[in-house]
Amino acid sequence: MSDADDVRQLALALPHVVEIDSEGFDFRVADKGLVWSYPERRPGTSRLIRTDIAVLYVGDEAEKQALLLGEPELFFTTPAYDGLPLVMLRLTQVSVDRLKELVTDAWRMRAPDSLVGDLDTAPTR
């Protein structure tokens, strides 16, 4: 079981990650989002920032579909994310170890090549 604090700790342990000021959490590397709070849109009302659900960058449609089909208890999507390499992750259903893997993978896909080597030399926190 994970939560927003786990996301924050894991994301900030990665090199060159910054947290953007938001109602929930929003982490980026080189100005590219890798994981953030799910802004749930509800008809007729303002959006609700869900810190129990993370939007996670996954790289491509094949990876997205593999996660959605392979682990539906963890991952889901909405029509707003159709065609985008993003999935929603139920934080209360994912272990911290699996969350670390997912956030690190998102970082690797979003970080420019010039920064990727920094992951291997970053101190473990």
Write the layout of secondary structure elements.
Blueprint: H1 4-12, E1 17-19, E2 26-29, E3 32-40, E4 48-57, H2 61-70, E5 75-76, E6 86-90, H3 96-110, H4 113-121
Antiparallel strand pairs: 1-2, 2-3, 3-4, 4-6, 5-6
Output the helix-strand order. HEEEEHEEHH
Name of the level-1 CATH class = Alpha Beta
Coarse morphology: globular
Number of discrete domains: 1
* Global mean pLDDT: 91
What does this structure look like?
This protein has helices spanning 4-12, 61-70, 96-110, 113-121, and strands spanning 17-19, 26-29, 32-40, 48-57, 75-76, 86-90. It has a single domain (4-116), classed as Aspartate Aminotransferase, domain 1 (Alpha-Beta Complex), CATH 3.90.1150.30. α1 (4-12) packs across α3 (96-110). Strands 1-2-3-4-6-5 form a six-stranded antiparallel beta sheet. The mean pLDDT is 91. The protein is an alpha+beta fold and 125 residues long. The longest helix is centred in the C-terminal third of the chain and has 15 residues, at 96-110.
